[in-house]
From TrEMBL:
One of its GO terms (biological process) is DNA restriction-modification system. InterPro entries: Restrct_endonuc_typeI_TRD_sf (IPR044946), Type-I_RS_S_subunit (IPR052021). Keywords: DNA-binding, Restriction system. GO terms for molecular function: DNA binding. This is Type I restriction enzyme, S subunit.
Length: 400
């Protein structure tokens, strides 16, 4: 951005943005729902600018005291617990409704481009200086002083450019929402498949199988499927990479340990690929994982026992099979209570867990299926994240 011209613009727009006093564009509004004609189903949640058809618990008799918020009106949300240290203005882009009388309200003097303002109000660089000068801080709430705010000035383009900018971000948000809904749908499908492609309590076969597999699943103790993996080395004196295991079966992570922090353990364990690994202190929170090739650069302490899978077992299958809530409950039972969240796992009891397993070929097919499904879901999530980054970059570049 240079002066009063944004750094990114649509072609055809070259005029500098014009500085305008807010008082020329908006005025204070205290319109009340005096006749009660707007019902509770039109209650607006200001922070999210969405309908709250159940209302906020107020009686019907109090509705005439509620403020009216028209399309294009702005309300000030001063609750600092919602992540805005000086509060925020939110423009009504959903339609005429009512809200608590505690909110300060501004009404446009003439027609405004609501989509443009919706996104312009998200530009903290433009609005924070105005809020600093026109708000008073309470314990939890920031109070707006409308008269001071309306003395402030902002930069605005002409109406056609406002429309173009508003339309761009509206379409971008629609695209993000579309992909996010698809992510949500795929996650529900995945959860359903996890229930259907593994036997549920009281069952010996899954309800959905690949057509080529008809052999029964067999009940095995976990200890008969794995072998302890315990490759010890002296603790490096020049630093090393440490592996951690996230709770709730969220996988592993790697951490650099500088030389000066490499103390307290005279020896560590190498990490093998495709091993079952568990954090014995947080096993009750399902701090388990199957290691990958990338994890083999790391070392772990004795608190992270590992087990390699025996011949005839597909390690990737167990990435999914051990997500079973029954196994998490078993880990909890095998972890006697300790101080705080620390409950040390009895490893021998963990290995007594009985699990239904199919043939190696069916294990491989199930693992490959969920791996492909997860790659598709991860790609969709990354697309959502990328679109969000694009939006944030444009928000910082298309406004003055």
């Amino acid at each position: 951005m240079s002066g009063n011209v944004p750094s990114i613009r649509f072609s055809g727009f070259t005029d500098p943005w014009e500085q305008r006093k807010l008082g020329e564009l908006y005025t204070v509004s205290d319109q009340k729902n005096v006749d009660g004609s707007i019902g509770v189903e039109k209650t607006i949640s200001v922070s999210s600018m969405s309908w709250n058809p159940e209302g906020n618990g107020a009686s019907a008799d109090s509705l005439p005291a509620y403020k009216v918020l028209n399309y294009g009106d702005m309300a000030f949300e001063g609750n600092r617990t919602k992540g805005h240290s000086y509060g925020k203005l939110v423009i009504n882009d959903i339609g005429k409704g009512i809200m608590s009388s505690r909110f300060r309200t501004l009404r446009p003097v003439s027609e405004v481009c609501v989509p443009f303002w919706k996104y312009y109000l998200q530009d903290s660089d433009a609005w924070k200086p105005l809020f600093i000068r026109s708000t008073k801080r309470g314990t939890l709430m920031t109070e707006l002083v409308p008269g001071e705010l309306l003395k402030g000035a902002i930069y605005l383009p002409d109406m056609p450019e406002q429309v173009a900018i508003g339309s761009l971000f509206t379409h971008l948000d629609s695209l993000i929402t579309l992909h996010q809904r698809e992510c949500d749908r795929l996650e529900k499908v995945r959860a359903s498949l996890m229930q259907s492609m593994f036997p549920q309590p009281g069952e010996t076969l899954p309800s959905i199988r690949f057509a080529e597999f008809t052999k029964p699943w067999h009940s095995k103790q976990l200890g008969s499927l794995v072998t302890p993996f315990d490759h010890r080395i002296p603790t490096p004196t020049d630093g090393y990479v440490r592996l951690g295991v996230r709770s709730f079966a969220k996988g592993t992570f790697l951490q650099d340990v500088p030389a000066e922090q490499a103390i307290g353990e005279t020896e560590l364990r190498e990490v093998g690929p495709n091993n079952l690994i568990v954090n014995i202190v947080f096993a009750w929170e399902q701090a388990i994982a199957i290691t990958s090739e990338a994890d083999t650069i790391a070392l772990v302490s004795h608190r992270f026992p590992q087990f390699s899978f025996n011949d005839g077992q597909c390690p990737d299958f167990y990435r999914y099979a051990l997500l079973d809530p029954r196994f998490r409950h078993h880990l909890w039972l095998a972890s006697p209570s300790g101080a705080g969240r620390n409950k040390t796992l009895r490893v021998d009891e963990m290995l007594e867990y009985w699990i239904l397993v199919p043939s190696f070929e069916e294990q491989r097919a199930i693992a490959d299926f969920f791996a492909a499904f997860d790659r598709s879901l991860d790609a969709r999530r990354r697309l959502c994240e990328a679109l969000g980054h694009v939006k944030n970059a444009l928000l910082s570049s298309m406004f003055v």
